[in-house]
Structures are given as structure tokens and as C-alpha cells.
Write a structure and sequence with these properties.
The chain is of the alpha/beta class and 179 residues long. 28% of the residues lie in helices and 21% in strands.
């Protein structure tokens, strides 16, 4: 089974805003192992400049993404996955579908909403908090590749019952499609 962990950085959170960075981390799951295979990210120049609030989070200068596009080959990797995982998947799916509309129909799972964090005695479920709690280090928080890789590593941690968070997520079923 191929599982894609996705994270996007965006120019803002409004309907006119667009993805400015995409990260894709691929997990392979077999009967014998579950492991992270590879990760890649790409900047994307589409839509408006980042709002001041968005820039304060991701710190990606406009010049860095000028003229860049997520390679088609990277997007095509999503066509062969059984599941797409994101933290706050509704947001990442909305940003990604503005560039590649077909991605909305993929089987998405949301680690924010579909994992029972309260059973783990965790009430603040921001990705940064979860990664800190499970001692998963990132060099650049709020950069797509570091966040996606951090989430992939988190999915390979076990919950209170000994089950991988990824397994818990896979058992929940697809996230409802956004309009």
C-alpha cells in the first residue's frame, strides 16, 4: 500500500489564495513493514502574493517562488496512492485542488480530525504541539517538507493501545469531499 503524506503552504486562507509550496512524503506499507520511502517539495508561483499573516508563518519570499511550478511528475505520484494523509486535510485538499482539481477525489484522511487524540490525553492538536509531544524534531516548522515529514513520522508512532496512528487513521474511512 502506498500512502502519501501531503502538506501545503499557501498565500493565505481565502478563496482567492493559492498553494505556494507542496510537499509529498511517500510511505510504503506491507504486511512486514511500514516505512517512509522518500519526500520531496516544490515551490509554486500561482495566484496572489502571500498575505502578511501567511508570510509571517511560512517565511517564503515571493522571489523564491517566482516562475516555479510543482512538477507534473510530482503531482502524478498522487495518482498511484491508496490514501492521502494531511493534518487539517480540508485545507490542504482545497489548496491542492485549485492547482490540480482531480486531487479532490482522492481518498483523503485527516490526522487532525480522524485520530482520537483525546484518548492519548492530548487536547491541543496543532501539528507543532503533537510533534513536540512525541519528540519529533523539525528544522523548519511551517515549511511543507518538514511538516509533511514530521507528520509521516508521527503516523509511525503508536497510540496508547500499541496501534500505529496510521492504522487508526486508515480504519476511519475517507474524509468527506469538500464542495
Amino acid at each position: 500500500m502506498r500512502i502519501a503524506v501531503v502538506d501545503t503552504e499557501s498565500s493565505g486562507t481565502g478563496p482567492e489564495d493559492r498553494m505556494i509550496e507542496l510537499a509529498l512524503v511517500m510511505i510504503e506499507r506491507t504486511r512486514h513493514y511500514t516505512k517512509i520511502m522518500w519526500g520531496h517539495s516544490a515551490l509554486h508561483d500561482e495566484g496572489p502574493p502571500s498575505s502578511a499573516d501567511a508570510f509571517a508563518i511560512h517565511r517564503i519570499p515571493e522571489e523564491a517562488r517566482q516562475g516555479k511550478a510543482v512538477p507534473r511528475s510530482m503531482l502524478d505520484q498522487l495518482k498511484d496512492v491508496e490514501v492521502v494523509v494531511a493534518h487539517n486535510a480540508s485545507f490542504d485538499r482545497a489548496m491542492l485542488r485549485r492547482t490540480a482539481t482531480w486531487t479532490n477525489g482522492l481518498p483523503w484522511r485527516c490526522s487532525l480530525r480522524q485520530i482520537k487524540w483525546r484518548k492519548e490525553n492530548i487536547s491541543f492538536v496543532a501539528l507543532s504541539n503533537l510533534l513536540d509531544h512525541y519528540k519529533i524534531h523539525r528544522i523548519n516548522a511551517h515549511r511543507a517538507l518538514d511538516d509533511a515529514l514530521g507528520l509521516a513520522k508521527l503516523m509511525l508512532h503508536s497510540d496508547h493501545s500499541g496501534k500505529l496512528f496510521l492504522e487508526q487513521l486508515l480504519d476511519t474511512g475517507d474524509l468527506n469531499q469538500d464542495a
